[in-house]
């Protein structure tokens, strides 16, 4: 028993087994095998290592964004001149990565809480007081039908807002010449690398005179609002009239096997919501972007307000960052998976040899060795006569 156990362990530790190789001289099968192997090799080198950089470990960036708008607009509406600066047309306060630049508005001046008829827009008509249920939802009705407007009287901020006609051209059409300064900082915590979009070549003298252009000034952090809208695919004159949303993507794709100075941002612009860029005239609901806010004041001891319905360009700045650096573990993993894929060539060629080529039976006999185990019949015990004869 001990010798059997010893022999088993000896065979396990000191013997090596390898499969038998059969050399097949078949040109067609050999060419198919080499083509598959070359395809696998091209995939591993070209896609896995060069394009996907499968030899690198990857980290995702953590980033922050600061913004600053600049520009002044002048309007003369009903002989009332006004200057609009940043504090008037940017919502909310500057510095956020998501904000709205006002380009058009409808102002309802001098509203106070009172009773007044609803807007005669054809949606809230009445013929008698019975059509104006007191306390009806949406607006608090008094129960009276005003004959000269054929609308119900309501408790509200009066006069009610009339937003049926949007100013065209937009009131602040000159907003296309506003400039946006973006300051972005990112960090790759796994590699302890911190970068800013104000890279080494972007100094104060350069910022004072540059304006972003994808070919001539791709690293300039100052953008003209009209250029942002146009590069997103929208028409500024149309989006300024009804509003819309623009996405500014700051993309960092860094290869830290090279110098960290090569880690630079790339800016892309996308139209997220607006009037469309293909001139589609189909009547779509709720196009554009708008919101309301009010300025409150007291006049003759009575609270009043100016209601502003604002149309504008909403800017959403999105930061996406990814960095890779060589690491032995993903490298070995990529190589191991590539070696495993090489087995596809063997499987395909074996199928050709065993099932498709004319001499497939011959190849089966060469590849597989069949053996038969003969069953041993148990020996019967000898009789006494047989034992005596064997002794003689």
Number of helices: 10
Q: Fraction of residues in helices?
A: 25-40%
- Based on CA atoms alone, the radius of gyration comes out at 40 Å
How is the biggest beta sheet arranged? 9 strands, mixed
Number of DSSP-assigned strands:
15
Structural class: alpha+beta
How are helices and strands ordered from N to C?
Answer: HHEEEEHEEEEEEHEHHEEEEHHHH
The residue-averaged pLDDT reads 85
* Poorly predicted runs: none
- Beta-strand percentage? 25-35%
Inertia-based shape: elongated
Description:
There is one protein chain. With 392 residues, this protein is of the alpha+beta class. Helix content is 27%, strand content 34%. The strands form 3 sheets. Strands 1, 5, 6, 7, 8, 12, 13, 14 and 15 form a 9-stranded mixed beta sheet that branches. Strand 14 and strand 15 form a beta hairpin. The mean pLDDT is 85.
Detail the topology: elements first, then pairings:
Layout: H1 2-14, H2 27-51, E1 56-60, E2 62-70, E3 73-77, E4 80-84, H3 86-89, E5 90-91, E6 98-117, E7 140-146, E8 151-158, E9 179-188, E10 193-196, H4 204-209, E11 222-224, H5 225-231, H6 236-242, E12 244-255, E13 265-273, E14 290-299, E15 302-326, H7 328-341, H8 343-356, H9 360-367, H10 384-391
Parallel strand pairs: 12-15
Antiparallel strand pairs: 1-15, 2-9, 3-4, 5-6, 6-8, 6-15, 7-8, 9-10, 9-11, 12-13, 14-15
Helix pairs in contact: 2-7, 2-8, 8-9
Distinctive features:
392 residues, alpha+beta, 9-stranded mixed sheet, 4-stranded antiparallel sheet, elongated
Entry summary:
Strands 1, 5, 6, 7, 8, 12, 13, 14 and 15 form a nine-stranded mixed β-sheet that branches. Strands 2, 9, 10 and 11 form a four-stranded antiparallel β-sheet that branches. A two-stranded antiparallel ribbon has the order 3-4.
């Amino acid at each position: 028993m001990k010798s059997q156990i010893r022999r088993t362990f000896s065979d396990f530790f000191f013997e090596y087994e390898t499969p038998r190789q059969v050399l097949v001289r078949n040109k067609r099968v050999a060419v198919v095998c080499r083509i598959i192997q070359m395809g696998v090799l091209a995939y591993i080198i070209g896609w896995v290592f060069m394009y996907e950089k499968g030899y690198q470990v990857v980290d995702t960036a953590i980033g922050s964004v600061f913004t600053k708008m600049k520009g002044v607009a002048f309007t003369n509406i009903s002989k009332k001149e006004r200057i609009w600066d940043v504090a008037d047309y940017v919502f909310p306060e500057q510095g956020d990565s998501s904000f709205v630049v006002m380009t058009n508005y409808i102002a309802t001046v001098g509203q106070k809480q009172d009773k007044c008829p609803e807007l005669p827009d054809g949606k809230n008509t009445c013929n008698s007081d019975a059509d104006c249920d007191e306390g009806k939802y949406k607006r608090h009705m008094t129960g009276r039908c005003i004959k000269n407007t054929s609308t119900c009287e309501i408790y509200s901020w009066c006069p009610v807002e009339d937003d049926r006609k949007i100013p065209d051209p937009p009131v602040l059409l000159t907003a296309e010449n506003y400039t946006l300064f973006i300051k972005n900082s990112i960090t790759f915590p796994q590699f302890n690398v911190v970068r800013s979009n104000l890279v080494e070549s972007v100094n104060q003298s350069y910022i004072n005179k540059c304006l972003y252009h994808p070919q001539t000034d791709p690293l300039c952090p100052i953008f003209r609002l009209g250029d942002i809208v146009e590069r997103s695919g929208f028409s500024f004159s149309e989006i300024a009239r009804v509003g819309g949303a623009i996405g500014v993507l700051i993309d960092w794709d860094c290869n830290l096997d090279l110098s960290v100075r090569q880690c630079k941002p790339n800016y892309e612009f996308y139209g997220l919501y607006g009037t469309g860029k293909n001139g589609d005239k189909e009547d779509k609901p709720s196009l554009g972007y708008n919101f309301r806010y009010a300025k409150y004041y007291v006049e003759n001891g009575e609270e009043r307000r100016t209601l502003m319905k604002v149309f504008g360009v909403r800017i959403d700045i999105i930061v996406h960052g990814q960095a890779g650096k060589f690491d032995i573990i993903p490298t070995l993993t990529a190589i191991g998976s590539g070696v495993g894929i090489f087995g596809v060539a063997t499987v395909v060629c074996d199928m050709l040899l065993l099932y498709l080529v004319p001499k497939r039976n011959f190849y089966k006999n060469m590849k597989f060795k069949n053996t038969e185990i003969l069953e041993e019949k148990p020996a019967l015990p000898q009789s006494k006569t047989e034992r005596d004869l064997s002794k003689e």
